[in-house]
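Standup notes
- DV: blocked on the single-chain target, sequence here:
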Amino acid sequence: PLLRAHSLNRAGNWLTNVGRAEDAVAAHCEALALFEEYGEDHGTAETLDLLGMAFGLAAGDAIGAVASYDRAIDRLRRLDEPQRLISSLISRVVFS
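- DV (later): unblocked, structure below
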């Protein structure tokens, strides 16, 4: 299931990049559910970051983007992942 979740994130990122917002969000949401079910915090944080981008860029949903980034930022701070944290903080500012 965790490999599937990682694959869903890769597919969701590609779908975001080609403008297929609904499919991108669905892929990331499915990945998020799997990571959360298995208690995989790094995967959850990464997925929330990718979901923020999907909401913001592909779906044009700034509120959804900021909410996803808020959750990602909280987890990334606890996980001590400064590089991804910086990226999420910058993206959150862009969509706010």
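- Follow-up: The chain has a mean pLDDT of 96.
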